[in-house]
Specification:
This protein is α+β, with helices and mostly antiparallel strands. It contains 10 helices and 9 strands.
């Protein structure tokens, strides 16, 4: 468990949860799901001591659940946001790159490495409690980012310097949610590469695609991502609706901060819409690849059948001639002639070559 005191000009990590709330700024308590489970009673006691109100038991269960979808709920003293992140598992991208020309099992392992663990937020007026999966990069990233934003250390990457400090727990929560949405970019590159590989395997004319189980699993993965994105969109939309119902602020600075919260919330919603649109585009691309595969398979089958039909049409009159001269009659034209065999052979060759040339001109024997 890590505890931070955040103001507009400072970002300090505390050794323990303070006994009282600070006069300025707010407290951010970030912990893993297991740590929250072990320390939930102590956190509830601190919330009661600070007179901000304890978490409802149902919401505590939501923060501890690892299977809960993205959703938003609220009370009169705090808001609850559960947001499922979309990230690629550690090493999945490298695993696919190393074996890009190998078997399809590599892509299968990478598809199974998608992480959709939930991150929970309890947003009070002066307290933010965030519950993360074990070894969550979101907490570490923001701890580093806010530290560098305060210190403004030379040589720090541009995305970690000169940032405006979050003015409230709700502002910090929205920034972390936005970061989780933007982290889909890495997963998007991975999925695009994997689906491109599967499409090339489907459309190869000199190979027989047989790993339909992998294709079904990849499509199911895209359906799962679509469901996750729709839950994310619904949760953020409910947050925006609840934000509009907050009491009006008389202080101009507070009203300006409220408007910035609405702006950031709409920006998060727009990012989720883009992610959802990309997932659906990948789904349609996968469906189109399957349809193109069956169309190409049908086209190749038609080509084979056309060739076989043309060959049958060429050899059918030749078979008829051989059948006629194979009859057991005593008297037949050219049967007793010395050059009869060669004359019939030349006639059959001329007839077969003429039919083949005619079919070639009709493009029945061409690709």
């Amino acid at each position: 468990m890590r505890v931070y005191h955040i103001t507009t000009e400072s970002f300090d990590e505390l050794s323990d949860i303070p006994s009282s709330l600070p006069q300025s700024g707010y407290i951010w308590i970030a912990c893993s799901r297991r740590q929250y489970e072990l320390n939930s009673s102590a956190l509830q006691a601190h919330l009661q001591r600070w007179n901000v109100g304890a978490l409802v038991d149902l919401h505590v269960a939501d923060l501890l659940s690892n299977q809960l979808p993205s959703h938003f709920d609220y009370t009169s003293w705090y808001d609850l946001m559960v947001f499922r992140r979309l990230t690629a598992g550690v090493g999945s991208d490298q695993l696919f790159v190393d074996d890009a020309h190998g078997t399809l099992s590599t892509a299968q392992k990478a598809l199974h490495a998608i992480d959709t663990s939930p991150v929970g937020f309890a947003v009070f007026d002066q307290v933010l409690i965030s519950v993360h999966p074990a070894e969550c990069q979101v907490r570490e990233y923001f701890a580093k980012r806010l530290t560098q934003a305060v210190k403004n250390v030379p040589g720090t990457p541009e995305q970690l310097r000169g940032g405006r400090m979050p003015t409230s727990p709700a502002d910090l929560m929205l920034r972390m949610v936005n970061y989780m949405v933007d982290s889909y970019l890495d997963l998007r590159r991975l999925l695009t590469r994997q689906l491109g590989y599967l499409q090339s395997e489907l459309l190869r004319s000199n190979a027989h695609f047989s790993n339909w189980q992998l294709l079904l699993e990849s499509r199911n993965t895209l359906h799962m991502l679509e469901d996750v994105c729709e839950d994310q969109r619904a949760a953020v939309q409910e947050w925006i609706d609840a934000l509009g119902e907050w009491p009006a602020e008389n202080d101009p600075q507070a009203a300006r901060d409220r408007e910035l919260l609405r702006l950031r919330s709409r920006d998060v919603l727009e990012h989720i819409e883009r992610v959802l649109s990309h997932v659906r585009r990948l789904e349609s691309t996968a469906e189109a690849a399957v349809q193109m595969h069956f169309s190409a398979l049908g086209h190749r089958t038609n080509q084979v059948m056309r060739t076989l039909t043309v060959l049958t049409a060429v050899f059918m009159p030749l078979t008829l001639i051989t059948g006629i001269f194979g009859m057991n009659f005593e008297h037949m034209p050219l049967l007793k002639h010395d050059a009869g065999f060669w004359l019939i052979l030349i006639f059959m060759g001329t007839l077969g070559g003429g039919l083949a040339g005619w079919f070639w001109r009709k493009r029945y024997l061409r690709t």
